[in-house]
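Case study 2.
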Amino acid sequence: MTMQVGLQTTTRSSSNALVPTQISDPARVASPPKRAEREEYPASPLIALRPQRYSVQLNDQLTVLQQADSYLSQLEKSLLNQRHANSAGGQRGESSATLADLLANRAQRSAGRVDRQLLPVLQGEAQVTFHAPELAALLANNGEPVSLMFSAEVGQGRRLAAVSLDNPAEALNPVMQIKNALQRTGVMPRYSEGRWTFTTDEANWPQLQRSFTLADAKGDHVMRPAFHASPSPCDALGTALESGQRDGLQSMVQSVLHQVGEQRQQLASAQEKARQRMDVMARFPEAQSAESASAALGQTLAWACHHYETLVQAINGQATLPALTVQNLLS
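Prediction:
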C-alpha cells in the first residue's frame, strides 16, 4: 500500500479577516498627476512613470538587473578599498567594517537579487544549496518499508507531509513519492554526480534549518536531521575578515573581486540589450510614420462610430484592461 498526505497550517489573527473590496465607478478615472516639465524618453526604468510606454515585463526585468548590479558595484568598490588597505599595510578597520556590513546585509541591500554565491538572481528567488545525510540515506532506500512524516515551519504556519510505503519494491517510483513529500515542506531534492543535494528559498533557510523534523507515521521518535549549507564565497570572505590574516584575506578578496567583475560585465551586456529593445518599441522609424499612424487611428475611430459591431468589439477588448491603463495608452 502506498499513501501520501500533505497538510499546511497557518496562524492568522483577527486583523487579517477578509474585507470586501470597494468597487469604483469605471467611468470615473483619476487623472494622472501632471508633471512640471516634459521628460526625455526613456524615463528611469528603475521607477518608471509610465510603464505602458513599453513592455511592463521588460521594465521589471531591467529593474532586477539594476538591483543586482547596484549591489555588486558597491561590493566591488569595497573589495578594491580592502585590497588597497591590505597592500598598504595600514589600518583596515573602516574598509573591513564596510565590507562586512555589505556581506551581512546582502539580501536587503540587493533586494534579494544576489545569492550566497554572489551570483545575480534574475528569475525566481535566491536559493540555498545544502547537504542532509539523513535525507540522502532515505532517498537511497534499498527496499525497506517507509512510513514517515516530515514537518517544517514556513512563515507563521507549519507544513506537514507524510509518505507510507509498505513495500517500496512494488510501489510505483518510491523515490519520486519521497521527493514529492519533501517538496511539500519546501525542500527540493536533486540527484547529481552520484549524490543527493537539496535546495530551498534563501528567505526560508534559517527557519527550515531550525524547525525541520521527521518522525514515524504516528508522530513519535522525532528526529531533527542536520542541514549543512554548501560553502559560499560570501561566508568564506566573512570568515577571512574575522580572522584578520593578511595573506588569506588578500587571496580571498582577489578571488571574489574577479568573480564580481565578470558578473558585472554580463549584467552590463544584458542591460544594454534591454534598453535597445525598449528604445525600438518607443520610437517610430520616421516622424511621418507617427503622423500617419495617428491619422489612421482617427479614421478608424470615426468609421467605428457608425458601425456598431466594430465599436462593440473595441469596447469588449477594453473591458479586460484597467481604465487607467487604457487612458494612458490613448492619451
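The chain has a mean pLDDT of 79.
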